[in-house]
Amino acid sequence: MQEEIFISGRNIPKIDPYLEIWHFPISLYLFLGGMAAGIIFFASLFTILKREKDVQTAIKPAMIIVLFALSIGLLALFYDLTHKLYVWRLYTTVRVESPMSWGAWVLLLITIGSFLWVFSYFSELFPKWDLKIKWLKQLEQYLIKNRRNLAMILLPLSLILGIYTGILLSAFNARPLWNNAILGPLFLVSGLSTGAACIILFSKDHFERKLFSKIDLALIFIELALIVHMIMGMYAGSAVQLEALDILIGGEYTVMFFVFVIILGLIFPAILEGIELLGYKVPVAIPAILILMGGLIFRMVMIEAGQLTRYLY
Amino acid sequence: MKYAMVIDTLKCVGCSDCVVACQTENNVPIGYCRDWITESVNGSYPHVELELKSERCNHCDNAPCVRCCPTGASHVAEGGIVLVTEDECIGCGACIESCPYDARFQHPDGYVDKCTFCAHRLKEGQLPACVSVCPTKCMYFGDLDDPTSKVSHLLQSRKFKVLAPEAGTKPNVYYLI
Asked: Is the pTM value of this prediction over 0.90?
């Protein structure tokens, strides 16, 4: 029988035993980017459908949260760069092959679009704050008139941003845990779900909360189905993928993944939202916060566990 | 022109001279390596086999690091050598994540560093530092597009393997077995 008795590995102290290139800021960015994409998606969608009155939180206060989420996310990304002074190089090139390149461009466009969006609601959000400068007033009027057009642009951009957070990882075939095509749609659905949860958390309107609870419940079921899909796909995969899956199922990250992501982050809040939709009173913040926590922990698990998986050594 | 390195695992003794030569030639910071030695023992006693390999960036034909680089800092230079332009690199780490050989690292100065096949020496008609110092002469370097080169000849006449061919990167460092 042929068996491997011993492999020395490489013993390069600053690189081995495994990669630690991407840290918590990247997980935080993927979470905030996904959540922002979710909120922008719903705000744009309901604006295009001319149902702004039903979703007052989604189109106004939640979009302010988007600005904070995108800004903090961008700062986190910047913080994790090691050659920070050259960051402008991202915006002197467009490389279609590199998800990070088009992701950076989409992030720039969507951040500008979101600022314009919030500015179009400036007078409604801050009624006591008078815009004294004439051209700012003109800009606001112009944006109010073109809000639906802005929504038409932001809707596809939000979908690209949401799916990009997953494709960024799935494009690396060197990390078998990340290298599956379902990760893009999975992160998109998770982002939409956390976006909906964020709107539920801040909404004071009963109808809006109920509407987003229904949406969120559907998204949680889709997300669970996609996770099952991911696991099944990897079970049918190559040796390196099977080895990678061991980390999530029966390995180092099993408890984190099943207890904090699947049970506390998806199944339990889904049950709570279901109970609420049946008419029982459930404090709305509990499922919303659980979903948000689950979304963040999911990205932390994927980032950290993915970097443990490799082809050699 | 297509540069390739051929390493005879039957002649390598794992002395790490290539590692030290690289660190000296390229001023590699302490704690990092652009090349390294792996040692593996296979089989069941009494039929066991020891294999020593000097490994480095494989300068792949289908280089995932070049594909995923958002700024174009990682690029394919003349002869198929994969290089990093220091002042275009933002240090995002995407190329490090994308390499199945884990051949790249973040230099303490921030940019990403790796084996260059000693491109600066090649320009002067010299061999890469690791190849030139190997005491057992188990490393060969040359042009695969030239059918009369030593590397072409070795790959025609000997059995060889590449690392992680299943990763689909089409590496250009070959190991004679």
From this structure: yes
